[in-house]
Amino acid sequence: MKLIKMEKVKDGRYLKNYELTYENKAGKEKKYEIVSRRELSSVEDIGKRASGLSIAAISEGKLLLLKEFRMGVNKTIYNLCAGMLEGNETLEECAARELYEETGLKVKRIIDILPASYAAVAISDTKTHIVFLEAQGEFEDHTSENEWIEAGFYSKEEVGHLLKTAEFSSRAQIIAYFFTKGLV
């Protein structure tokens, strides 16, 4: 497999659409579409930088989950607090800002930050970090009028029930599962 060239086909406000031309293992030229959150200057630029983070937050033995409406699936799902890096923001600054914006909570302490991983490898080069942290404070709504988010802390038993009865984003589902096993 060999990537030959890349052409931007749409320049959206938040997503850029690209058509990739590649040579498959049989030597035939094929086309493939991807989206990126970033402006890509060349094929070498694909997947090079992280664009944001997801937050696995705990407080007093409970896991923070967001119940939120997601336009991409036209329904309410359980998700992690997450967001995009802005300017020269550090991961710690981004985690604190996103946690506050989406929940009103503050960072008590950062537990760990994982290296960036790909969020949707079949369609995008988006890379995000996962930040594990302990949160504190009271819930407050600081979201924009374009977001519907209901934040809550859930016990292992409550999360176990949600895993059987509710829909999740894939990262939130994995974090929730490991939380029920005592691994988060």
Any overview of this molecule?
With 184 residues, the chain is an alpha+beta fold. The chain is built from three helices and eleven strands, in the order E-E-E-E-E-E-E-H-E-E-E-E-H-H. It has helices at residues 91-103, 156-165, 170-180; strands spanning 2-11, 16-23, 29-36, 52-59, 62-70, 75-79, 81-84, 106-113, 117-118, 127-136, 149-154. Strands 4, 5, 6, 7, 8, 9, 10 and 11 form an eight-stranded mixed sheet that branches. Strand 9 and strand 10 form a beta hairpin. Helix 2 crosses helix 3 (170-180). The longest helix has 13 residues, at 91-103. The termini are far apart. The relative contact order is 0.18. The mean pLDDT is 96.
Q: Biggest sheet: strands, sense, closure?
A: 8 strands, mixed
Succession of helices and strands: EEEEEEEHEEEEHH
Number of strands: 11
Mean model confidence by pLDDT = 96
**What radius of gyration results from the CA coordinates?**
18 Å
Termini Cα gap: 38 Å
